[in-house]
Amino acid sequence: MKKMVSHNKKLKEWVMKMARMCQPDGIVWIDGSDKQKAQLEKEAVTAGELIPLNQDKLPGCFLHRTNPNDVARTEHLTYICTKEKQAAGPNNNWMAPQAAYRKAKAIFKGSMKGRTMYVIPFSMGPVGSPFSKIGVELTDSRYVVLNMLIMTRAGESVLKQLNKTPEFTRCLHSIADLDINKRLILHFPEDNTIWSVGSGYGGNVLLGKKCLALRLASYMGEKEAWFAEHMLIMGIEEPNGHVEYIAAAFPSACGKTNLAMLIPPQGLKRKGYRIWTVGDDISWMRIDSDGSLWAINPEMGFFGVAPGTNMKSNPNMVTTIKKNTIYTNVLLKPDGTVWWEGSDEAAPASGIDWQGRPWKPGMKDSDGKPVSAAHANSRFTTPITQCPSISFRVDQHHGVPISAIVFGGRRQFLAPLVYESFNWQHGVFVGATMASERTAAQVGKLGEVRRDPMAMLPFCGYNMADYFRHWLKMGKKMAKAPKIFNVNWFRMDETGKFLWPGYTENLRVLEWVLDRCNNKVEAEKTPIGYIPKARDIDMTGLNLAAGALDKLLAVDKKDWREELKGVKEFFEQFKKDLPEELWQEYEALSERLSEK
Ligand code: GTP
Ligand code: SPV
Ligand code: MN
Predict the structure, then answer these.
(1) Would strands 184-188 and 78-80 be described as parallel, antiparallel, or unpaired?
(2) What is the per-residue pLDDT across 15-39, written as a single tens digit (0 to 9) for each?
(3) Is 410 helix (H, G, I), strand (E, B) or coil?
(4) Residue 203 CB–ligand 2 contact under 6 Å
(5) Spatial distance between the Cα atoms of 385 and 68, rounded to a whole number of angstroms
(6) Could you point out which of 8, 92, 394, 448 has its C-alpha 20 to 30 Å from the C-alpha of 519?
(7) Mutate-to-test residue for ligand 1 from 258, 262, 281, 313, highest number of ligand atoms within 8 A of CB
(8) Beta bridge partners of 227
(9) Active-site annotation holds for 387
(10) What's the pLDDT tens digit per position in 110-161?
């Protein structure tokens, strides 16, 4: 057993207590050194947990395959365990803490027999920043350790910080026997504790990410007056060198990663814009003494979707993942490199698919459906420091000032390309009524709308009615609150084609957003908010079909009146808890929509 290096008595006692329950063969403290990382990689390769990739073409890269029953977050097995059910709200699964601990203990008992328990001290946010939070994850998975070393600041420096600021989130994880019937992702916000068992997949087991940095952090943020949000953070540098920052919340797989590191389109190049990436998934924001909102990205890596990542959609990411990257559930090519659907190269003649089976293009399963080479939710874990567009402010304890908050979803119909809310309270309503459609791939369900307020439905660690109230209160506290916008890159024409080319071209919309923040352009008032005058979106170098921009900006009152029904239904589930202000906004919108 390696000697413990912490002086934090509570930490040492907790580690020993958890070890008595899980009964590992040994305990290893993660120090964050290259030497220890190399040792773990070696062990993981020997154990078959990692496959080393072609070290000439992909230096420092590995492939990992998860259990086929364990490829995505399992929201139905994810619980908020508060004393009162009311505190978790209708947006969460709830279990009483005592019952939850009891249930999980039965699974954790002896679960680490024959394995090592790793102790990972990690900081979400720069080590020592008053805005960061420390966690310690205990896990019996080397894959988890190696991912946490990429996604967070982990090791010795965090242990040292724990001597100064002793508080930490207790994160316990065991893969146990990967039985989906014995899988639980439990959050105990009142105890600052997370227990996850029976899974080895990203969002379920990298406990610093969705579990701490969103579910527990959102709970803390409500108490301590700050925001923990499912948002990217990006800087837009103007030719004069001035950089403005925006934060944007889109639901999972709706384009945060792509937007956060876009390269300006040819036509706008003449203006000399440059994009700086601060974060692609999570934003912690607080009100500073200047009365404005400042944001940090608590993470240090990207856990990004592989399929669809190519030189056209996201050139910066293609560069980022060329080294020191862990690929999960993608295809292994005979030359020891990797492939996925929607990559730059054509499909290889053969390979090993994400389940470890021989694969050839055109293969069909027993239902006649094509066998995918990479899982649709296959991902890569890669250091943010390798991103060509990384912001120099990623490590700054203060973060960056936010000029605009942008919400967005996937809507074939209804939502225009962009609109601006009338004020903060209306902006909160816009976020609270956010929704996203299922993709066209799901025949029959086309157009089905799923409400996902602020893209936080799976990640809000408490009653969403209180979360909305928190948003309203925060607006009142800010002297210089950011303006709130909504975007929709996914509007379609009658033939089912995207009206807007998206990706790099989205900068044209962000330019208008910033122009509005800086009072540079007028806008058109509609019942749902301000939309751009067509001439104010710079279209240099972009040839849209005739009438496309008008269609993109159209607000159809009839469709919006229909939308109100879904909003009402969604709001009603919160009963009397829903802030009155949101009903006021609902009524006001309803009235504006009925005017001629
Ligand atoms: P999580 O990591 O799951 O939180 O998601 P994310 O929001 O970072 O999603 P990501 O950027 O990986 O989403 C990618 C999906 O959105 C892919 O299917 C892309 O092809 C699609 N996408 C991204 N940007 C655009 C766009 O501007 N237009 C269109 N049409 N599709 C886009
Ligand atoms: C998401 O699902 O929004 C993700 C991936 O970012 S995971 O970390 O697995 O939740
Ligand atoms: Mn996400």
Answers:
(1) parallel
(2) 999 999 999 999 999 999 999 999 9
(3) coil
(4) yes
(5) 31
(6) 394
(7) 258
(8) 285
(9) no
(10) 999 999 999 999 999 999 999 999 999 999 999 999 999 999 999 999 999 9
